[in-house]
Amino acid sequence: MTTPPPDTDELLRQASRGDPAARDGLLARHRDRLRKMVAWRLDRRLAARVDPSDIVQEVLAEASRKMDRYLRERPLPFFPWLRALAREHLLALRRRHIRARGRSVLREEPGLLDLPDESAAELAARLVTSATSPTQQAQRKEQRERVRRALERLAERDREVLVLRNLEQLPVADTAAVLGISAGAVKVRHLRALERLRALLEGEDES
Predict the structure, then answer these.
(1) How many Å apart are CA 96 and CA 102, to the nearest integer?
(2) How far is CA 90 from CA 14, 59, 95, 158, in A?
(3) What residue ranges do the domains of the chain occupy?
């Protein structure tokens, strides 16, 4: 019988005892999740020059340098901590791009929560029920566009919890760590965001 690989908590315990393999294992375990997050958030104006894998490599190198302090302080669960480092890299990258390109780069600002159009469209698609027949697929495409427009009208806090839970697909505990609220508050906020989105869509139907 194959022994399952150690989970994050076990790797953290081993890393805290000075096991270098466990440190490497922590970073390797979350590489793919981190790359997906970076790909969802990377400004498409930068994507032609910067590969998400390169950003992830830089983030993991920074995480390795800061690992000792992280293991002492544990400011966040491990993946939300990695994600916060990645977010800072993305923001710094965008600031450098704006300085390099000057005012021209501001002519087309990113929309929904700084998400590229493809990522915002994917979020809308995930909030729409799946369909199989050609007629249903056409209706689904129209519905995705309506959801996309409604998302733009939501308050930022509502949009962000939908991005974290439905696009990045973070567990409730990780979402709570990212937002700095309790797990119970995440569930309430997510439910209310969905209700407000539904109300916007129903209002559009009645107009």
Answers:
(1) 10
(2) 30, 10, 9, 22
(3) 1-109, 112-207
Tell me the mean pLDDT in the region 112-117: 70
What's the burial of 105, exposed, middle or buried (CB within 10 Å: 0-12/13-18/19+)? Answer: middle
Whether the per-residue pLDDT at 6 is higher than 90: the answer is no
Q: Are 160 and 189 in contact (CB under 8 A)?
A: no
Cα angle: 152, vertex 95, 177; to 5 degrees = 60
Collapsed DSSP state (helix, strand, coil) of residue 182: coil
CATH number of 112-207: 1.10.10.10
Rounded CA-CA distance 10/80 in Å is 17
CA distance 69 to 98: 32
* Contact yes or no for 79/8 (Cβ under 8 A): yes
Query: pTM of the entire structure?
Result: 0.84
Query: pLDDT-derived band of residue 165, with 50, 70 and 90 as boundaries?
Result: very high
DSSP 76-140: S-HHHHHHHHHHHHHHHHHHHHHHHHGGGGGGS---GGG--HHHHHHHHHHTS----SHHHHHHH
CATH of domain 1-109: 1.10.1740.10
Residues whose CB falls within 8 Å of the CB of residue 22, separated by 6 or more in sequence, listed in order:
6, 11, 12, 13, 14, 15
Whether residue 201 contacts residue 147, with contact meaning beta carbons closer than 8 Å, is answered with: yes
